[in-house]
Amino acid sequence: MKKLLVAALMSAASVGAYAADVKVTFDGEVVDETCKINGADPLVDVLVTLPKVSATSFSEASRVSGAKKFDLKLTDCTAAPTVRWEPLPNVDLTTGNLKNLSAGGSNVQVQVLDIDQRVVDLNDDTGYKVTLDANNAATVSYYGQYYANTLPATAGLVNTYGFVTLTYDN
C-alpha cells in the first residue's frame, strides 16, 4: 500500500516538472450570422453535371475538358461571408483537385475554377470575400472541369464532391 502511495505521489510530482515553451490559447465566437444558399439553409447539396467527353480529348497529362459553370446564390445574409473550399481527404495533395471516387474514369480528377477561370487549389483555398448587394445577396460562381492527372485517361464514370464553407469575419 505504501509503495502505491509513493508511486502515485512521484507520478503527480513529475507532471509539475514539465516545462512548456509556448502557451496557445484559442479564442473565438460562434455567431448566428448566415446566408441562405440557393434558397435553402445550409447544408445545401449542389449537383454539377459535367458534360460527357471523350477519353481521347486528354492527349497529355494536365489536359482539361468539359468545363461547366455553377452558381452559389447567397440570400438573406446577415453579414458578408468569405466562401472557402475545405481540404478534404479526397483532394489530391499534388494537384489540389478532387479525386474521382468512382471505379471508372481512371486518371481523371475534377478541377475547380473561380469565376475568372483561375484554378482553385482545394488544399489551400484562401477564400473569396463576398460583397453583398443592397438586398443582402450575392452570387458566387465557379466552374468544374475534368483534369487528366496522368495518362491514359480511361472511359468511365466520374463522381466526387467538395465542401464549401461560409465564414463571417468581425
Automatic annotation (TrEMBL):
Residues 25-168 form the Fimbrial-type adhesion domain. The keyword Nucleotide-binding does not apply. GO terms for cellular component: pilus. It holds the Pfam family Fimbrial. Keywords: Fimbrium, Signal. GO terms for biological process: cell adhesion involved in single-species biofilm formation. The keyword Signal applies. Residues 1-19 form the signal peptide. It comes from the Bacteria. It is found in: Fimbrium. Belongs to the fimbrial protein family. This is Major type 1 subunit fimbrin (Pilin).
